């Protein structure tokens, strides 16, 4: 997803309009905008990329450029800033940035949080911001004391001089804010890091255990109304009819407002809106998925693969395999929602969104207002997982508030959330694998068929004709296989598809790591040793694999009925290995005992965050592999809530231990790379324990249940 | 008009017989710590205490709580001094945090009745959903809280 947005120059800046104290930012400006001069920059005041604000009371506020959805990014980014700034950690606070291109992640095409890219993208800019602020504070102190800057030292929120004593950052901030920003501030040597690499507690957890944390649905405004929506259950259908009179008889119902693809009921509280919607009983017609059901989806995928054909393999032993996975829902715990307040010359939006830029774009389109009349506030997100890169809920809330000219909070009921997701694509994968005399693969032919996420997501002008997310994790494997090919067919099915935690890797790791496991067993070899042999030219991968095997004590004698499954996969720049121990009791009942994960994500900012993300990501994948499935009948999603979309609970979740390898290589992500390992580790473990190979998910379809 | 006693404070409310306690708490009284997740009592994000027992407030009519002691997450110490809150911070349990008020209320009700639950009792009683997958840490959080209560009692 690289494009010419990346062709920008960067520079550090302060703002005279930011009031007392030191505010410093790091702007990513297009060449043209920079050449246009600094007047525009000063005029835009607080809208500048003011990434850090040091107020006279010493409080340091990071204007966090990423959405916080549980991945711990507010804390990790603060650690990077505080490290270079030599800040007192107890004085650090965060605010989420407004919608403004100054806050765009240089690794992303627009201002959004996704692709496990926050640390990778902001590592260098935040270090420079912190270092520049530190140097300015030192200079301010040196001027005050009339001593050379070189004699001043920054430490724990203070500037220290051997004879002159100590000045706090807060006392220096206003003077420092008037100084020139150093263009090339010296960065700390990594050996001197005192915060980075330490398992610091998350900054926002105290509010998360007292109920003070504010999510999208917690926004409260004077005079606000509450609404809910109903959209066509057949994708792309239109409203045919509804009973407005019946809805208006419901206590508290204030208005019925059409929205794109559906209709909203607005009332004095959410419950009345829900009751109003039931009475309104909207009927829909048409749609692009009419007559579609899950059997037909499989048929479309299989036909695409048949058209692609298989490769002929000449080898000692040949495997011919077919795998399949279903559509999946994100099912974030906080259902889709957004609060908007549209007036004549202004609009404010409060959204739990991963995508500030598209939130701004759709708000401008709907209201006809200019960007500087619109404020997008990003609340905490009650889960994201890629669902909130979309902005359909923003569109609806702004539409309704514009009609009513009142603040409105629109909340989807869970049923709506489940049936109007942008689903992880259903897909199918075939392999023809040739094994040599030593049992190792000499030829690997893989064909995939699936709908394209990017074709739907990227407006036609930017669509490049192929979708790298479809094959990610399958088109490049770390294993040394002499003849390797991966092709794919793009199919159009009509069900909206989207970015689901780990995207293409969510299915391709299952396909490739199970297909490889089948090769292992065809060759009658050990799954760990076999992979190891294929990784002689890939030392980083081999180390991750060896680490996890060692932690899991691979090769030990297992209790009766137990089996170990192993998997290895790289996604979002990080390499993860997994071993899962399960037991089967002879029937289809299994128990997940323990998982071991190892990760090489290059650099380590907060090891506890990495552990948490590995644990959570793996559980997310296990939940999907065991029981999650979105199916269609008559063009509609059959599942509606957590009673029929089966999500893993604590009683099925294994203990997960994580080991982190700090290789010092390029920074990788941690939010997504734990997820892809779960399905192959589980399927391979079931094979090890039972001898049964399952080539489609979820496993519940094959009768597998948790004991 | 009915009177609900929430976190020790009396609130006068005027709602229909079928209005769930969840929406009264959130939209009428203005206590937003209790979360909406499913509306059918499946996920537990809306868990509160009624006379000390954990109840899923999305499926519990508000008027059925008249005369009872209702406790929400806001009724736990706002400085985080409850043993369950302390344990949650010590084990760094939350991720997005949305389900955690429900997890904490379910856990505090369990431990109030059974301060030293077995592993099986914990798994049977705490069935709240978490999409971030914090289960391993929720489990450790419960055990940690149980130890804190034991130390305090000893």
Structure description:
The complex is a heterodimer of chains A (707) and B (154). With 707 residues, chain A is of the alpha+beta class. Chain A is built from 19 helices and 28 strands. In chain A, the strands form seven sheets. Chain A has a seven-stranded mixed β-sheet. Chain A has a five-stranded mixed β-sheet with strand order 1-2-3-4-5. In chain A, strands 22, 23, 24, 27 and 28 form a five-stranded mixed β-sheet that branches. In chain A, strand 16 (347-351), helix 10 (356-367) and strand 17 (374-378) form a beta-alpha-beta unit. Chain A starts with 7 loop residues before the first strand and ends with a strand. By secondary structure, chain B is of the alpha+beta class. Chain B is built from five helices and five strands. In chain B, helix 2 packs across helix 5 (135-153). Chain B is globular and about 45 Å long. Chains A and B meet through helix 6, helix 8 and helix 18 of A and helix 1, helix 2, helix 3, helix 4 and helix 5 of B.
Defining key terms:
heterodimer; A: about 700 residues; alpha+beta; Aldehyde Oxidoreductase, domain 4; five-stranded mixed sheet; 19 helices; disordered N terminus; B: about 150 residues; Ubiquitin-like (UB roll); DNA polymerase, domain 1; 2 domains; 5 helices; about 35% helix
